[in-house]
Amino acid sequence: MILRCYPVSSMFKLNYKPVGLWRNRLSIVPFISSNHNNNLVFHSKPIKLTDDSPLSGVECVMMDYLFGKKKATEVAHSIWKHVVQKGDAVVDATCGNGHDTLAMANMVADESCSGHVYSMDIQQTALQNTASLLDKSLDPHKREMVELFATCHSKMEEVVPRGVTVRLVAFNLGYLPGGDKTVITKSETTLLGMNAASRILASGGLISVLVYVGHPGGMEEYEMVEGFASGLAVNEWICCKLQMMNRPLAPILVLLCKR
To answer: Which of 65, 134, 143, 201 has the smallest count of CB within 10 Å of its CB?
Structure first.
């Protein structure tokens, strides 16, 4: 498994320790390059995750992921909990079967029900599955906090009202699990959606992108996401990815944290 941060001048990889020494502990070692090639300079002194890192406080979940006890989606949800606050506005850019939308609703819900989840998908099946899951999982007050939109995530700024401060935007790319595998997210519209997300996101907010590379078009979409992240200003963004090295078709989690 490798954990990388963009741009290349601030990339990281996991510092491996014997199991007896590294349980309940996660440290990272920076490796630096003066340009955008693969000539790397390694530093031997481990450092802990900084307080402004989107991974701060989720070391145990990361270890469970490393040992095969957690999925990438579970890692993503755990990270979201360290970013999202009660009463926040959040966006599920690809609602799918509704599991991310449901998780978001529980994160933003408070007694005043001031939080809001904007959830969207282009497939009616996805919207119906999400609505069904929400209806049976949330009480009526929480359910009212979630709006579903039959639209593409490239139209995100038309969905979220002007002036609303968004704490989290999540993309779960690829095809609908259990649905038509020929209907997939596309690099062109995903890029538009990520650009829109970067504009509406609040300082301290997070763009979370789970990319699947095992289907036709998936690797091209991942390369687009990686290129977008690499191009963000280092003084404005912290950008990381979580990837299994010996499972080339495993999903890749990309995290873009706005300073």
So the answer is: 143
